[in-house]
Structure formats: C-alpha cells, structure tokens
Design a protein that fits this description.
Chain A is an alpha/beta fold. The first copy, chain A, contains twelve helices and seven strands. The structure holds adenosine-5'-triphosphate (2 copies) and magnesium ion (2 copies).
Amino acid sequence: MSVWAVANQKGGVGKTTTTVTMAGLLAQRGKSTLMIDLDPHGSLTTYFGYDPDSIETSVYSLFQNEGGVPSDASLCLATQFDNLYLMPASTALATLDRQLGAREGMGLVLARAIQRLADRFEHVFIDCPPVLGVLMVNALAASDRLLIPVQTEFLALKGLERMLRTLGMILRARRRPLSYIIVPTMFDRRTRASLESLKNLREHHPDEIWKSVIPVDTQFREASRLGLPLTQLNAHSRGAIAYATLLDTVLASGNGG
Amino acid sequence: MSVWAVANQKGGVGKTTTTVTMAGLLAQRGKSTLMIDLDPHGSLTTYFGYDPDSIETSVYSLFQNEGGVPSDASLCLATQFDNLYLMPASTALATLDRQLGAREGMGLVLARAIQRLADRFEHVFIDCPPVLGVLMVNALAASDRLLIPVQTEFLALKGLERMLRTLGMILRARRRPLSYIIVPTMFDRRTRASLESLKNLREHHPDEIWKSVIPVDTQFREASRLGLPLTQLNAHSRGAIAYATLLDTVLASGNGG
Ligand SMILES: Nc1ncnc2c1ncn2[C@@H]1O[C@H](COP(=O)(O)OP(=O)(O)OP(=O)(O)O)[C@@H](O)[C@H]1O
Ligand SMILES: Nc1ncnc2c1ncn2[C@@H]1O[C@H](COP(=O)(O)OP(=O)(O)OP(=O)(O)O)[C@@H](O)[C@H]1O
Ligand SMILES: [Mg+2]
Ligand SMILES: [Mg+2]
C-alpha cells in the first residue's frame, strides 16, 4: 500500500484537484484507491456529492474515540467510479485543533487507521486543508509520498519556502524519510508571472521539482461541476494528460522526482 | 472608521487580492487605510515585502499579552504607497487555536486593538485565513462590513452555503448586524462552469450578491510579482476597473450590496 499526502498551506493551488485526478487515474487503471478528505471545508467530500455538514461518520470519528472507532470499513464510502472510495470530512474537523490542544500522541491517529486498512487498498490519497495544524501533522505522519502543488505565481513561491521549512520541522520527528515532489500547477505560458515563477522554482529546487507542469485547463472546473475526475470527462484534455505523465513519473521513480 | 473583513473558508478565491486592491484604491483616493494580515501563511505580508517567518512584532503580539501590547502604532508598518499601512502576520499565528483552546473572551482581541486605532485610519481591511478558527471569529467580531469573494465555479458554491451557515452562528453573538456582500471573482465568460455558477449564485443570493463580477485578469499575478496593487500597475486593466466599481457600489450603499 502506498500512502500519498497532497499538501500546501497556500489556498487554492490545486490540492483537491490533484487528489481527485491522481486517485481517479489509479482507479481507472484497476488499482483499489481510497481518498481521505482532511479539510474541514470538505471540497473533496462535496466533489463526490456528499455534504460535510450533515454527514454522520467521517474522518472526525477517528479522533473522537481512538481505538473504539466505528469499523474503519464503514468510513470508506463507495463512489460511482470503480475502485475509487472516499473517507469524507465533516465540518466538525474545524474544532479539532482547539479540542486537542497540546494533548500528546494525537499525531498518529490517521496513520494507525490507515494501517488497519492496508489489505483493502493499494493506494491512499490524503487531501490536506490549507493550514498548518493537527490535521496536516497527521497526514504527514501517515504518508510515504508527498505531493506539493504550487501555483506558478509569485506569492506561491514565498509560501513554498515556508512550507518546506515547516516540513523540515515536522519530519524531524519521523523515523522513515518522506520524499516529496513539487508539482507546478495552473501554468499559463502566456503570462510572464508564470514563466518567471517556473524558472525561479526550477533554480531553487532542482532536485525536488517535477520536470513538467500542470497547465491551466478550464476543463477542471467543468469536471468539478459534473463531479467527475477530469480523466473521466476527457482523458485527452491538457490537464488529464499532464496528470497522467506525473503519475507515471512518480510510480517509475519508486518515490520522489 | 470603517472596518472591512474579507473572508471565505475556501482557499485561493481572491481574499488577499481583494484586500490589496480595495485598500490600494482607497489609499490612492487619499484615505488613510490599514491592512491587517490574519493569515498565518502571510500572503499579504509577503506581498509587501516582509517575511512572516522572521518578523518581530505582528498581529500575534496582540494575543500574547492582552492589554500590555507594544503600542498598536508600532504594529502598523508603512508601505511604499501613501496612506497605505500594514499590520503584518507571523507564522506563529498558526499556533493560536491550539494555545487559546476554549479560553473565553479571546474573540474580541482584534476588535479592541482596532478601536484603539480609530483616530489614525479611515478604513481598516482584514485579510482572513482560509479556515474557521479563532482568527476568523476575531475578524468578524471586529468588522462592520464583510466581503465574501467566491470563485465562479462549482466547488466554491457549495463552500459558500457552508460559509453562510457558519457566519449565521458566529453573528448571533454580535449585537450589531454585519452586512455582507458576495463578490463573484475570477469570472471567465468563456467557460460554462463560470456562467452556470454565476447564474446559480444570483438565483440563490439575489439580495446579497454584487450585481457585477471581477473577471479573470492575468495582470493580478503580474501585480503580485512586482508587489504593487493592480491599480498602481495598470488602473485601466479589467481587474482594476472591476474593483473600482465594487468599491463605489459598496461606499454608495452605506453598507452592503
Ligand atoms: N490546472 C488547472 N487549471 C485551471 N483550473 C484549475 C487547475 N487546477 C485547479 N483548478 C481550479 O482551481 C480551483 C482551486 O483548485 P482546488 O480547489 O483543487 O485547490 P485547493 O488547493 O484544493 O484549494 P483549498 O486550499 O481550498 O483546499 C478550482 O476551481 C479548480 O477547478
Ligand atoms: N480576478 C482574478 N483573475 C486572475 N487571477 C486572480 C484573480 N484574483 C486573484 N487571482 C490570482 O489567484 C491566486 C489566488 O488569489 P489570492 O491569493 O488572493 O486568494 P486567497 O483567497 O487570498 O488565497 P488563500 O486562501 O491562500 O488566502 C493568486 O495568484 C492571484 O494573483
Ligand atoms: Mg482543497
Ligand atoms: Mg489569502
């Protein structure tokens, strides 16, 4: 089983889009895949037609009564797509940081739950919220690959430096290394801001950045309107082809770059 | 003094862009304007050339020793633009929810600090993080106008319903009403997703939605690369003209839409 975290503290960079598209591709290739929505705002849960406000059991249940959890299997909802499952978020997740506060040992709740599911899924994708807190710490503790979507624009570059510093701090506590790959998203070759940011990213992070880019593609919005992974809507769209190339690269390298 | 909050739990919808552009416009019109960065990720602080990781005094100081705060004036940094000031964020803000936990009375820290600055600024803009927590509660308690940027795409619509439900809960504790205006952003009239979402927004929120839209404009990214509000880079760009129209509408109506 391979566990992927998709994270960046900057909002709106394509975390949910990356999760849906990559997990969708693996499911289409016959791999049993679970997506976990760790964002209290519940974009991933909404994408597949569930309501984070009213959902009964969600990731939140894992944190409520550790160990006595409703069987993990009941947390994994089927989607309309073969091999693709969802562990939904509920808006109650927004209260976790306040509730847990400085309580020890709450950083491994998700990792333990995922281990219990090891025989059911070949891939697990964790969609993170755009904020540093107990949920992101859980995601990084549970994963063995990390994708960091970064919009090709100025503000996102500065944000990446901060994200990598934070990552360094969190990862010091892990025993196993976590390889990461920086994925340039929403690349628009018509604008100077995109071209300069990409050049800057490649100069500063030559070893961790993916050699290609995810281009701007208006079909992503269309796909989310219809609740379909883009590869189901149009496998030949620019965005779908780019994510398929990313998946092939990461799988071929065994880990990162 | 007029205090505006710019908030939406969804990431990447244009909160920071709205703050910079509206505050920039007011400053250019000769109004003394303060921008407050409440996002631990510090996009607004970075935009104006400061570093949220290393900054000494920031909004965080307000929460540290309530009452014995470094004089609020020292928290307001000058920018290179006349009449435009910044109260920066530091990354330490990310720890506030955990630190404060369920402690009472921490929802009014920002409101009290802003009241102390009433004689120095005509307008105050609060840029919120994409997460519901003590920082957003502080922003909503401190403001008398609320702008909710909403991307014209499907996921954002669902997110808006949740945001408005949350808002209702938080506002019940306020004595004064808070009028809000929904600002459709990144509108791309070439895509069906944008057109349908806008139609949907107008049907569901006829009284609270602004009658126009902020169009997609690649110059916003250029402006952030150069650290300029768009209206300083190019006052005749589509995005700048749209925000100027928004500002005129809100000022003319005295309050909301
Ligand atoms: N390559 C792309 N081209 C065009 N639009 C895109 C692309 N990737 C994502 N989008 C659109 O950008 C918006 C933001 O994407 P998404 O919600 O995946 O970001 P996120 O990082 O998950 O946001 P949040 O911080 O709220 O979790 C969505 O409307 C999505 O459809
Ligand atoms: N109308 C627009 N047209 C094109 N690009 C835009 C527009 N508004 C904002 N942007 C760009 O979209 C990106 C996200 O905007 P911004 O950072 O303001 O969103 P945000 O809601 O503040 O994000 P966060 O949730 O991280 O705080 C930035 O690159 C910005 O330049
Ligand atoms: Mg998301
Ligand atoms: Mg922002």
